Each structure stands twice: as structure tokens, then as C-alpha cells.
């Protein structure tokens, strides 16, 4: 949004001067009281220390924080709080007032981007700095380290190891591997295509897949300070994009570089490379020499069945974007190439297969694309004519098609409000999308639980149900998430239907939950009590004698067979487990569930009810942020159950139910 002012030119005449303003709304926990979302636009002011400076551009944001660049080349971040887990590790510990992020004084930032828990920035000299989650940060020099640079010998060794870092499920056709390490050997695209489709598309893994225990020492152990990314000599970066756990960078020569996690092909290297620890070129456009009469270099997607070239893809890449686990680029001729996770059709290839190499989107070959953006499961692009196309997941209407049906090929948006409008800028959050039109209008659609719905929201956060209702929680009385389960039973029944027929509850005071569930029609219930029951009443002791309720330490495997229960509900107890034990307990809970797992957990800074203070685990409760939990689910291979989440939210709205705890809906292991 532009504001107008007056200034004089060298001849003394008035000239119009436009100053850029930054507006924000949606979920930024450190900006508003009690972390409630901003439901209407609020202007972001420059800090007093930046007198004379002004905004240059917004850079989006990560989980719970926002970023923007000033005209002087400073990178400002805000919106995080001291108890928001890894978000502040990536963004800086401050709240509603923007602060300059501590990068080298000589670094003049011109571009920046944020993923789930890592950030990347480009300087005016074409250098790249990155920081945040360690696995997203490539080999490089941490600021303050005097031993600058890496030898070419090391780079060569890293390059030779690239194909050694493939996923364990990549090298055996049609089988699942439960190995904890990576496999040695290369995988061709042809071999990869033979792997069973379901094992490729679904990221669900066995209960044996766990986060390495080395990652259990807290947020600081998982984070890395800003480092200068080491690139080949002469490479000058002009743009960057950050995904869930991967990063792309675009050079002034039109070459794409990538690093980070590539298990679904989001690095475009032709195989399921689990981790690339140094920047590697992404083969988006053929680099082989062509005759002088060739105006452009074709890629493998250009040839028809006769091997004849029927269109031109381009010579170089001019724009890049990263989604949660997929990537997309635009070439200089306006063609789109996509690669990565394809479960929801977000690669636009007409299927739900993963794309391990950059592949042209064939249905848009006749359209010149100018802009592109990607969300968690969807992609949106705009043409030179101002038309908007979208494809991928659509659970929350993020495609703007008027339904919640996924689209595996690009679909032209024909909304009445966009008639006679030309889109100029496009942006995507996790589950919402937005454009700015030629006349300065902003249009947004998709998930609106936190009032985000626009390009001008700087930060976005992945949340379970109930995140926007923290303002209703009393700060003076303790909150028991087990009591919250009892309040939520009618909503759970509505959302899960037949899946409530056989329920296991895990948590303190489970006898009360189980007793209430037995009162429901067509529902049977069992419980696991992680605390001693010395003071339990006679009815609770009766449930224990009957074997309906067990007293057990949930740090150890549960004595149930796989899929013994249709639904597992856990409350409070997980807050006392370190990541080391969460690595074992959560997969075990998912193992015994057939239809899903529902987690009720407290908010950071929320006082606990008395029962929750009686920890059996020898440590105080650690109340983690929603962004921490979502990253943890991703890292352990647990998937959020979007269908159940949506049904729960709809039922909660109808029943005027406002949760006092964070609620996450997870899929069981398949």
C-alpha cells in the first residue's frame, strides 16, 4: 500500500513521492495481547532507531514471525515471543516492534525469505546468508568464525557424496525400508519410477521412524546462527525461496541452486536425496551446447512421442518459489517447471505422483507465466495477461475455485470479482492465497481462521484447532487439557463419527474421561493413567480392576496390538516428555490407532491445573508452541489429518465451542 507525499525537484517544482507502508494481519503471537490474531490490517511502523529509513519490500514470514527489508538494506523482523520455540531462534527475540536482525554491518540486504524454521537473505553483492534450523543451513562459515571459506577439495567430496545421501526407500523397488540411516548408491529416474506409488506419494512411515536422539537437547541445539553460503566462484544470487526444509537460490545467469531436504524430489536432482548439505545446481534447463540457430534450449519435457521439439522451454530461469515440500520455477519464455511432492496435484502434471526432476507443466505451455507462488499443498501462478491459475490441494478453498476439490492440472480462476481485473503479484501462505491487481486491489481466499487471508500478512503459522481462541483462557486459574477433552466430547463425536466407536484416552484423570465416554451412544472407551491412583475413588478403582483403565508409564511401549482402537486421544501427559521420549511415545500412540490421533496440549505460558503439576516424569511441564509441534510432526513422519481438523472446526463453530488448549488432529500410521 502506498502513501503519498510531496517533495521538490531540482527546479523547485512539486513532485509526487510515494512511500511504501507495510500492513499486517493474521497470526503474529508477539504483536497482540494474549496472542490473539489480528483480524484487520494494522500498519507496521519503523522503530525509532531507524529514523530516516523506510520500507522497501515485505519478505513474508515463518512460523510466528514476520520479515521486511528497508531501503537502507536492513532486514527487520518482529512478531515472535520468547516462548515460541524455534520461531524466535530464526527471527530474533522481540515482539511488536521491528528490530534489525543481527547480520554483518556491511551486508546490505535486498531480498529475503522464510521457511518453517529457517531464513535466507540476499545481499546487494549477490551473497547469501542463511540461519535457523540446522538441517536447513548448508556448510558455510558462521559469523565470527575467522576460518573463512571451504576448499575446492571439500566441495568436490560433497558433490561426490550427493547421490550417496538418498532415501532408504529409494533403492529397493516396491518395498518400504525402516532403516534409520541413508543408503549408499545412486538412483536413476527410471528406477525411482518403479517404486510402489503409494509408498512414494504418502509420507507416512512406520513406527520405527523417529527423530534422532541428538535432536532432543532443545531449540538451541537445533538452530544455527547466520552463515555465509559458499557458492562457486563468480556466482551472484539475485533471488531466494524457502520451503518447509529446503531452499532454492537463483543466480543472475538464470541458474537455480538448491540445498536442504529433498526426500520428495523438491531439490529436482532426479532422486530422493534426503539431505544436501551444500548448494548444488538444479538442472532446470538443459545446459548442453546447441547450434547457433537454436534460439533456446529444450528440456526433456519438450519432446513429443516422435522425439520432435514442439515448443521452446527457455534458456534460463527467471523466478523461483518453494512450497512445503515442492518447488516451481518460471523460465524466460514463461514456461513453468515443477518438482517435488505431488500428493495433492501441486505439481500440476495431472497426477498425484512426486516429480523428482524439473518437469514442464504441459497444460500451460501456451500461456506466458509471469509470477508464481506455492503454499503447503498448492500452487498459484499469474500470466502476462493478468489471469490467475491454481492447482493442488484445496481443503480450505486455497485454490479459489469455489469448491474444496483438489486440482491436479492448472485451473483458470473465473471468480466474478476478478472480471476485468489483471493480477500483478501473487503470494501463498500455508493454506491461503492472495493476489494484488493492476489497480492496486488485494484479493484473498482460503483458510481464514486467524484472519490471515492476504498477501500483506507478513507472517503465517501452522496451527492445530483452537489456536485463535487463546484470548478466552484465564491467566489466573490453572487449565487442565484432560478436562478440556471432556468438554470437547460432543464436538469430537460430530467430527469423527464412527471413529469414536472405540476410543483410548491417555492422560491424567483418565477415569473421568473414560466414564463420560461410556455414557455416549455406540462408544466404548479405555484409558491409560500415567500417574499413580492412590487417591482414586471407588469407581475409578473398579475400572482398573476390570482392565478398562491401566496405570502405565507412557515412556515405554503400550501393551496393545496395532490398530486396537479406532481413535486415540491424549491430553496433558505429552507436555512432560522430552523430545527423546516423544520420539518413542507418539509413534506408539499412532501405532495403536486405526483412524487417527487427537492431541490436547497446553499453550506456552499457560498455568496448569493442580493435577498437571504432579509430574511422574521427573521434569516440569514444557508447554510448546503450535509451530514447534507442527515441525515435530513433520520431522517424525506424522501427518496432520486435515479432513478431521476441518470437520472439528465446523462442529466447534456450530456448538460455540472455544478450546482452552491446543488441539492437533493426526493421521494414524498406514
TrEMBL record:
Keywords: Repeat. One of its GO terms (biological process) is pectin metabolic process. It comes from the Eukaryota. InterPro entries: CGR2/3, RCC1-like_dom, RCC1/BLIP-II, Reg_chr_condens, SAM-dependent_MTases_sf. Residues 224-452 form the RCC1-like domain. The keyword Repeat applies. It holds the Pfam family WD40_RLD. Residues 159-193, 207-218 have a biased composition (Polar residues). Residues 142-225 are annotated as: Disordered. SUPFAM superfamilies: RCC1/BLIP-II (SSF50985), S-adenosyl-L-methionine-dependent methyltransferases (SSF53335). PROSITE patterns: RCC1_2, RCC1_3. RCC repeats lie at residues 73-125, 254-333, 334-385, 386-439. One of its GO terms (molecular function) is methyltransferase activity. Signal peptide: none annotated. This is RCC1-like domain-containing protein. It comes from Asparagus officinalis.
